[in-house]
Amino acid sequence: MKFSLQTTNHWCNIMKITFGQLLILLVLTGVSYARSGKAQAVLNRPVTLSPNNISLENALKKIEKDAQVIFIYSKNIIGTNDKISINTVSDKLADVLDKLLLPNGISYEVINERIVLNKQNKVSDAAKETLSTILQQAAQITITGKVTDETGEIIAHIL
Predict the structure, then answer these.
(1) 143/123: higher pLDDT
(2) pLDDT digits (tens, 9 = 90+) for 22-71
(3) Would you call 158 helix, strand, or coil by DSSP?
(4) In terms of Cα–Cα distance, which of 109, 36, 38, 98 is closest to 71?
(5) Are 128 and 143 in contact (CB under 8 A)?
(6) Dist. CA 87–CA 120, nearest whole Å
(7) Share in percent of the chain as helix, strand, coil (round to 5)
(8) pTM, rounded to two decimals
(9) Which of 85, 130, 131, 137 has its CA 20 to 30 A from that of 40?
(10) Residue 45 contacts residue 69 (beta carbons within 8 Å)
(11) d(CA 104, CA 59)
């Protein structure tokens, strides 16, 4: 009596499934591939500005046209009516934004070739000094005592 094993059909099915999974893996890997340095390229674009005493909103519109970027911000959060004066000739966008936004308390972040503006969250120097003083004073305090339970028995001594 001879028995013949039909393993070749099973192996073919297994190979088809494996090939399909590898193909899906390669496609998804290609789709998720991240390009590095994209945001840096945006901030390196040259910008020329020479507005004097114009609103921040108009200056941002001129930068959008000149550097081909889009600013995203809320007029309720960012004071766009503030008057500014700046003079730049073929400077990097990052340098222009630092000169224009940082003194006004506005931070920026590049996301997908769009520049998102937001209020800066910074702690004042006085607050830092106060916190430092409090921490130094707390380090000098010595605590002693004893911990008891409801019945009055001592649980621990603190020296």
Answers:
(1) 143
(2) 889 888 887 776 555 455 678 888 888 776 778 888 888 888 888 888 88
(3) strand
(4) 109
(5) no
(6) 24
(7) 45, 25, 30
(8) 0.51
(9) 85
(10) yes
(11) 13
